Amino acid sequence: KAVSAAWSFVHEGAVEIALDVPEAGAPARVDTDAVRVALLNLLDNAVKYGAHEVTVALSPDRDGWRLRVSDDGPGIPADERKKLFDRFFRGKVATLSRERGSGIGLNLVQLVADAHRGRVTVEDREGGGTVFELWLPRGEAGDGPDRSVVQGDRP
After folding, report:
1. Which of 41, 47, 51, 83 is the most exposed place for a label (fewest CB within 10 A)?
2. Which helix (H) or strand (E) holds 106?
3. pTM for this one?
């Protein structure tokens, strides 16, 4: 659903978004609205800051789910990564671009990960670009307020 919403970010077919999501898997106890907002922020950043190809992949592991957003954009300099998830931080590429932004999107992604007792990481993509990975534990019944159980639901 979040990827479908992201089509509004894709201007005149300039960006190709590929989706790699299993048809079904182990259930996860997540706040689906919060995870959708986190994914939209990652997709929005990829599109706004120069990616031509973006891949969204969802895969289960032993203890949870990995949601990876990989792009072929300019990447993020290593010296900016420690501040990347800080509220209101905008990197050099963001501040030099004409794109509007407040610097709260990646902080929001971090907050979503924290609220689920998960984590978000960023690394270089082989061949150029960036990979963000949002890992969320599967969770058990009662593992937090206002969470929905999602099973085999595409993001």
Report:
1. 83
2. helix 105-115
3. 0.79
